[in-house]
């Protein structure tokens, strides 16, 4: 929901940083993989309850995630790079939640399972719509900078990173925060399935 407002704010500094990286021969895929590795290191830190250190790495992962796209747009974004980016993003999101489950299984495991379950709903609707949108040449004007077309919702990238920040700053409230966000994700998935079905159905009906 917030991505369409945050994206225009963060794109200019990301573009400047990406230009600097390009001058040194850094490729978007290298940035993607580096950011993913940084994000994965946060998982054991969370498991051992080093929440502030983990938060630094989580933010680092998100910065690299923005940089790889900005760097790709300085040339011609590749489908392979887009695939790598979105796949590693979903692994990162679920991995961070798993880190909190490992930190306190008794208190956090059930809420973590519910949250990852809700992520499956948002992720499946995201990717399924992207495939059909490409097939029917549908687009979302709010997110022209994305490699894959997708439907917006109440829970997007900005909301998710804000949630992770709250997790790290308020780890004792993980169950409440996770369950609350899971409810938002489930509503988002429901809206995406409904609106996506309607959009694709209309495109099929208009097709010759």
From TrEMBL:
CC terms in the record's Gene Ontology section: membrane
GO molecular function: phosphotransferase activity, for other substituted phosphate groups
Assigned keywords, A-Z: Membrane, Transferase, Transmembrane, Transmembrane helix
Pfam families reported in the protein's UniProt record: CDP-OH_P_transf (PF01066)
Signal peptide per UniProt: none
GO-annotated biological processes: phospholipid biosynthetic process
Domain of life from the UniProt record: Bacteria
Spans traversing the lipid bilayer: 36-59, 80-103, 109-132, 148-167, 173-194
Family membership: Belongs to the CDP-alcohol phosphatidyltransferase class-I family.
Protein name, entry field: Membrane protein
Lineage: Bacteria, Pseudomonadati, Pseudomonadota, Gammaproteobacteria, Oceanospirillales
């Amino acid at each position: 929901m917030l991505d369409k407002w945050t994206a225009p704010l963060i794109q200019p500094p990301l573009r400047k940083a990406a230009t600097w990286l390009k001058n040194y021969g850094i490729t978007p895929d290298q940035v993607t993989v580096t950011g993913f590795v940084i994000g994965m290191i946060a998982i054991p830190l969370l498991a051992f309850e080093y929440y502030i250190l983990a938060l630094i790495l989580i933010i680092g992962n998100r910065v690299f995630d923005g940089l790889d796209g900005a760097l790709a747009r300085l040339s011609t974004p590749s489908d392979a790079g887009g695939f790598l980016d979105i796949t590693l993003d979903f692994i990162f999101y679920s991995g961070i939640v798993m880190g909190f489950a490992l930190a306190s299984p008794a208190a956090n495991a059930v809420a973590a399972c519910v949250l990852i379950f809700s992520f499956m709903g948002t992720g499946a609707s995201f990717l399924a719509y992207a495939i059909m949108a490409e097939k029917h040449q549908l687009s979302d004007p709010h997110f022209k900078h994305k490699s894959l077309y997708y439907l917006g919702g109440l829970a997007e990238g900005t909301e998710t990173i804000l949630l992770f920040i709250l997790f790290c700053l308020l780890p004792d409230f993980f169950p409440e925060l996770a369950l609350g966000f899971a409810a938002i994700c489930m509503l988002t998935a429901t809206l995406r399935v409904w609106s996506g079905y309607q959009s694709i159905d209309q495109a099929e009906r208009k097709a010759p």
